[in-house]
Kinase (Malaciobacter halophilus), 261 residues
Amino acid sequence: MLDLISFVKEQNLLNKDKEIYSLVFQDKKYWVKKARPTMSSLSHKIYYKIFKLEIITPVEYKSAKEALKFETSKLKKFEALGINVPKIVYKDEDFFILEDTGRTIHSHIRKKDTKKEDILFFIPKAIETIAQIHNCNEYHGGAQSRNLTYKNNKVYVIDLEDSFDKNIDLKTLQYRDFLLFLLSLTKIKANVNIDYEDIINNYINLTQNYEFKEKLKSLARRISLLIKISKLNFVNKLFGQDVKSFFKLFDSLYNLKMDRK
Ligand SMILES: Nc1ncnc2c1ncn2[C@@H]1O[C@H](COP(=O)(O)OP(=O)(O)OP(=O)(O)O)[C@@H](O)[C@H]1O
Ligand SMILES: [Mg+2]
């Protein structure tokens, strides 16, 4: 253990410009995350004031030490709740060391040649984990597919450093989590049709957060004109894959069926 810590301290000097990096020590892989402040930019806060969109809710300012304390405490809290998180091997004021918990969900589904079976396997697994967090009356804070990992048939939750103003309620933060996850799916290059309605129904069945459906639909209504324009053949041709995927998601949101139980 002491050997690992002195090894990491040496590595920290070599990796001065890296805030997070992995290393192998005695055949085991670890991740080192250094303390750094969390904040949103001023322009981000201004956009939030203008558009009042949950998705861009600014994160609370925390000093490097506060952020490290927040993230490591939240990892402990999640562990106690039975949510899979990497074990904290060591922490001090400047950095902490985590056990490796496998590749990110994003990395398993992002490639062009990703198979449909993989999409149908990893996305529901990720949704199950996000729903588990929400059912424990918690939020992730950055539930994109790059902040969930997969190892030995289990999904793990990482990157818990972001927190928000006390006046922002839990449901808003959970809705933000879910929307961030959906948006992160538009970044994958897989040549597979993603059934967003099915994903949303799956999440809602697990959490009973029925009102999120209406919220997603009304978000899409705000850009309904753009969605219509995006469907015009000559416009669609101009878009790159990510913009096409974005409009595909929003078209699905716009057409969501409100089949309340
Ligand atoms: N315990 C772990 N096991 C496996 N991979 C990890 C682990 N911790 C971090 N990673 C990898 O490092 C990346 C960055 O870690 P993390 O998300 O905690 O840092 P961040 O700088 O806050 O990221 P972001 O870019 O999302 O703000 C992750 O996306 C993942 O690929
Ligand atoms: Mg991250």
Remarks:
- Residues 117 and 192 are 10 Å apart (CA to CA).
- The chain has a mean pLDDT of 95.
- The domain at 2-99 is CATH 3.30.200 (Phosphorylase Kinase; domain 1).
